[in-house]
Specification:
Layout lengths: L2 H24 L2 H16 L9 H22 L20 E3 L5 H6 L6 H9 L2 H12 L4 H8 L3 H18 L7 H17 L2 H7 E10 L7 E4 L1 H5 L2 H9 L1 E6 L2 E7 L5 E10 L2 E8 L2 H4 L13
Parallel strand pairs: 2-7
Antiparallel strand pairs: 1-4, 2-3, 4-5, 5-6, 6-7
Helix pairs in contact: 1-2, 1-3, 2-3, 3-6, 3-7, 5-8, 6-7, 6-8, 7-8, 9-10, 9-12
Length: 302
């Protein structure tokens, strides 16, 4: 086996891990693939004969590529979408799997329970904070290595990660862990929505729930707060609930609503804490929905 073939084989071993790093950094599955491919190009152009830890080297390279991509977004003024009050409603790409299991590659991608709510908080962090938190707290990269990527001292890098950690813990606390119990909450929400039962909807929602809807550039986006305000959208929820297919969204029970001919109409992600829905994130962006692969999810495409 040639050295190039050997490196290619080793790289493929690390590819799922590198995609997981990039997904947390970028919130986009397509851009995560681009970042991993750029890492491969850099590996091909580098002499790694003296590299003792190839996985660590590839992880830091992927982190640097993602950092450059985030900074490029800012330069091009690609800001997240906002609602009428100026609140961010841009949702990350969902990772969708069948209601009962996640395939092995998705398990790697979603390790550490990377739910939609956590991904949203990560997107609010400054690029350097995000890198420090993702690489250190999620992938155990030493601060000395991260510091070299962001041109900061290890002490400053530690402070960036600490600041990011406080924000994550404050805005995205750990959800309930009982999968069956969470599915029951989602089912109760759907039943109340289908029946137009306002009181039943309010009962399953946390009083301080935040509901975000991301329609992309083609449809309106919105952000609503509070159980009463969110439940007032029962008619909208009922339309999605009637076409609901139970799935796992980033490893947690959610709903994929499809049209009569099997095309994705919306993705609804539920964050559940204390037996109530604390966050409801709905993707209705036709462009991103069109890229979702529904094969293997029980959808019959027309």
């Amino acid at each position: 086996m040639s050295e190039k073939d050997f490196l290619a084989e080793r790289f493929e071993e690390f590819r799922p891990h590198l995609k997981a790093v990039a997904y947390r950094m970028l919130g986009s599955l397509a851009e995560a693939e681009d970042a991993v491919q750029e890492t491969w190009f850099k590996l091909n152009r580098s002499d790694v004969g003296e590299v003792g830890n190839l996985g660590g080297w590839l992880t830091t390279v992927t982190g640097r590529v993602c950092l450059d991509m985030l900074r490029s977004r800012a330069t091009r003024h690609e800001e997240p979408l906002h609602d009428q009050d100026g609140q961010v409603v841009r949702l990350p790409d969902p990772v969708i799997s069948g209601a009962d299991r996640i395939d092995p590659e998705q398990e790697i991608l979603l390790a550490d329970s990377v739910g939609i709510a956590l991904m949203i908080v990560l997107q609010t962090l400054a690029p350097a904070e995000r890198l420090a938190f993702v690489l250190h707290d999620m992938f155990h990269v030493p601060f000395d290595d991260i510091a070299g990527i962001i041109d900061r001292t290890p002490a400053t890098t530690r402070q960036l990660a600490s600041r990011a950690r406080r924000r994550v813990q404050g805005q995205a606390p750990a959800p309930d862990t009982d999968l069956a119990a969470r599915r029951r909450v989602v089912d109760a929400f759907l039943a109340a929505a289908r029946g137009g039962d306002f009181d039943a909807l309010v009962a399953v929602l946390d009083p301080d729930i935040v509901a975000r809807s991301d329609g992309g550039t083609l449809l309106p986006s919105a952000l609503r707060r509070g159980a009463t305000e969110v439940a007032s959208q029962a008619i909208t929820f009922a339309r999605f609930a009637e076409a609901a297919l139970p799935v796992l969204i980033n490893g947690t029970p959610g709903v994929l609503a499809v049209t009569a001919d099997g095309r994705p109409m919306s993705v609804m992600s539920f964050t559940i804490q204390g037996g109530r829905v604390t966050a409801l994130d709905i993707l209705t962006d036709p462009e991103r929905l069109g890229r979702i692969d529904v094969s293997g999810l029980g959808v019959v495409e027309g």
